[in-house]
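User: Quick sanity check before I run a bigger batch. Here is a single chain. Can you write out its predicted 3D structure?
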Amino acid sequence: MVATRPDLLARGFLSPAPTSVPKKTRIFLPEEKHKESASTSSPSGTNKKHIVQPHQQAISLVDITWLKPHEEITGVDRVQELYESVIECDAYIVPLLVDSRSGAILDGHHRYAVGRIMELDRLPVVLVDYLNDESITLDVWPGCGIDCLTKQEVVEMSLSKNLFPPKTSRHDCVRTFAPIHVPLDKLRRRS
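Assistant: Done. Predicted structure follows.
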């Protein structure tokens, strides 16, 4: 069992065992957003094109049920605004940032809420090795009621049945994501 800080334990935050990683569908940015390198032959003999994307941004479509929030959202106004934007674009244009091992949502809780409201089956994400990636730093928002927070505590919270209050964790990521365009029909399962 992972040790938990007493102040978080006193608030009832638990740390259940991690779940398995789902199958992922890998997609790429629109043609103008990436460069193709030479085709190469795979072990099965088929040709595959390697895609070089800005800032090594690989987009995966993951099952929405695998994603795990670690904090509450700030309110319905932001969700409504994003919902209307997604409907207008008929697509997701910004991916979520997600830990590849646990499914913890690091950035994109409101986009996740929109996906659930729309009853989407999958969401576009950038998967990262959160605990080991030093380019992703963590701080807390002023006035959130917690003095400090570790990455491990964020993951543990996402695996528990509890959530931090809105605007608790503050992730600064060196990466900047290029806009994406993942049509809503790609985020729904076909019968």
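The two ends are 41 Å apart (CA to CA).

User: Great, the batch can go ahead then.
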